[in-house]
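debug: dumping io for the single-chain case to check the tokenizer round-trip. Nothing else runs in this session.
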Amino acid sequence: MAKSAWIIDITDANFEAELVERSKQVPIVVDFWAPWCGPCRALTPLLEQVVNEQQGKVILAKVNTDENPGLAQQFASEGIPAVYGVRDGGIVNQFMGMLPEAEVRAFVASLLPTATDTEAKDAGSLESSDPAAAVKAYRTVLAEDAKHEKARVGLARTLLQTKGAEQEATTLLAGIEIGEFAEEAERLRTVIELRTDLPTSTTTGDDAEAKYNLGAAMASRGEYLPALEILLAAAEDDKALAKTKVRELMVKLFRVLGNQSEASETYRRKLQSLLY
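debug: decoded output
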């Protein structure tokens, strides 16, 4: 079948833009294949047909593993054909080998957004500009589908923009342990933990323990970067404290800021240089 606007070739060069970023707008079926692979030659035309029938609701991204072996390793693919469903930058479904046409169609259909998915995505676009409207929109989604994880996580995140809704947010996040929203749910649970479990008062003095208490109070108030700075100072003063309470709290702050964020990587390196 001839290529279409909904079928693209993915390489190391365009992986980030054409797969990761594009999947935040439209679901993507990623097909790992090679010219010498017999099952691939049977599966790929079927994937192309099913994707083209969706008229742009889903994209097929083809990866030639002979030319891009690093991408196969990145997806932890153990053989080909290997097919992954990617949505919002994360893998949400996958299969290996040849499947019957009905199962291939069901796989592609599972990636398509439902009406509530679309409503939840629209609510997400309001979180920064109009949090009250986002809360209302998320609650509308959950009235239709109480188990909708994107809406549950989105509502919890929006509610946590201000203090006072930690208990409701905890309830919303309960049970979201695996899947595409698990990482964000865990991050938000850590935000709640910092607010509710850390001391908010500080002690006088300039010793390591006093600095730790000040950093903990800052973290509980959401002052994450200043907290990291003062915690690092506490670690410099007391290596034993650095290996226990300081390290534990800084790891939680890395999770809240994003483990791969620039700030987390910077302070992680600084902490490691002190510990090791």
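debug: round-trip ok. The CA atoms of residues 232 and 270 lie 8 Å apart.
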